[in-house]
Amino acid sequence: MKTINLSEQNTILNRFVSELRDVDVQRDSMRFRRNIERIGEIMAYEISKTLDYSSLETQTPLGTSTTNVPVDSLVIATILRAGLVYHHGFLNCFDKAENAFVSAYRKYRENHQSFHIHIEYIASPRIDGKVLILTDPMLATGGSMDLSYQALTTKGEPKHIHIATIIASRQAIEYCERNFPQDKTTIWAAAIDPELNESAYIVPGLGDAGDLAYGEKEG
Ligand SMILES: O=P(O)(O)OC[C@H]1O[C@H](OP(=O)(O)OP(=O)(O)O)[C@H](O)[C@@H]1O
Ligand SMILES: O=c1cc[nH]c(=O)[nH]1
Ligand SMILES: [Mg+2]
């Protein structure tokens, strides 16, 4: 299992992550969504370097050109809601990919301190032998990612799993390293933060990604 923390490199990605975290910039929800989307585009580009390639001959108006192109079948899977716009970033890059959607959400108890993760909906193609990219901008405890993956295994056995997130807690990285298949999982994070608070929010994190992208929800 390999974990790649993209914030260890000096790239423009770090600017987009810092804008996502910034309480002032967060007031502009269109910019918040667009930053998530463009981080998805950049991360998809990084993941594309790990795929299998074969050469493709193309007829141009003046001759033929040979280019190495990716040949893997991809499934981009997303956890509602916050994952939606992140998913689109991946799809902008991998425009031929198939797509899967899982609804996993935190159902808080009265005290707002403890919660269950509910999965009520899954829409997915078969994933046998395909490269599965699980996208969710926040990886706090790792529970939503784990349960979503378990739900998707009813659709087959992927060739490789990429867990793609923007902000992960250190705890969730360790949880995923323990609970996902060792031999075929890669974790990609744009940043890894040190802790969770008592409500299992990432600290410093950015707050509630779903609410910042789409507005507050009832319950
Ligand atoms: O790692 P975990 O502890 O499971 O937490 C992470 C989950 O929390 C967020 O979704 P949330 O449940 O807030 O739903 P939303 O996207 O609808 O706001 C986020 O998008 C992840 O799915
Ligand atoms: O920090 C967190 C944890 C879960 N969901 C979020 O949107 N943010
Ligand atoms: Mg969610």
Automatic annotation (TrEMBL):
Residue ranges of domain Phosphoribosyltransferase in the record: 10-215
Transmembrane feature ranges: none
Alphabetized CDD domains for the sequence: PRTases_typeI
Biological function: Catalyzes the conversion of uracil and 5-phospho-alpha-D-ribose 1-diphosphate (PRPP) to UMP and diphosphate.
Reaction(s) the record says it catalyses: UMP + diphosphate = 5-phospho-alpha-D-ribose 1-diphosphate + uracil
UniProt xrefs under InterPro entries: PRTase-like, PRTase_dom, PyrR_bifunctional
Enzyme class: transferase
Family indicated by similarity: Belongs to the UPRTase family.
Molecular functions per Gene Ontology: GTP binding; uracil phosphoribosyltransferase activity
Pfam family, one: UPRTase
Pathway it works in: Pyrimidine metabolism; UMP biosynthesis via salvage pathway; UMP from uracil: step 1/1
Protein name: Uracil phosphoribosyltransferase
Keywords: Allosteric enzyme, Glycosyltransferase, GTP-binding, Nucleotide-binding, Transferase
Cofactor requirement: Mg(2+)
Keyword hit for GTP-binding: yes
Taxonomic placement: Bacteria, Pseudomonadati, Bacteroidota, Bacteroidia, Bacteroidales
UniProt-listed Enzyme Commission number(s): 2.4.2.9
